[in-house]
Amino acid sequence: MTTASGKGHVPPKAVAAAAEKGLKLREAFHRGGTAIGVARARDLSNQRALSDDTIKRMVRYFARHNVDKRAKNFGDESNPSAGYIAWLLWGGDAGRDWAQGRRDKSDKA
User: Fold this and answer.
1) How far is residue 13's CA from residue 67's CA, in Å, rounded to a whole number?
2) What mean pLDDT value characterizes the chain?
C-alpha cells in the first residue's frame, strides 16, 4: 500500500486542515481525543507521510467512532462534543475517506 516513492502516504490538505481544526478546538475547550489522537493530528496537520499500519489504524478508528456523529453538539464549533473534536483530530470526514481509499487500493493490489 505504500506509495510509489516508498515514503508512505502524505495526507491531503483537507485532512491536514481538519486535524489542525481539531487541535485548535481541543485547546480551546479542553476536551476531545486521547494522546494518540493528538499525535495523529500533529502528523496529519504537518502532512507527514504515514505508514500502511497507520492508515489501517485510521480506518479502524473511523469504523469504531462513526457512532460519535450522533452525539449532541457533534459539528457545533461553539460548543463541540468531545467526539467531534476527536473525529477532527483523526482528519474528520476527509481523513476517513482518504484512509479508506488508501486501504481499498492496497486491498486490490
Assistant:
1) 25
2) 92
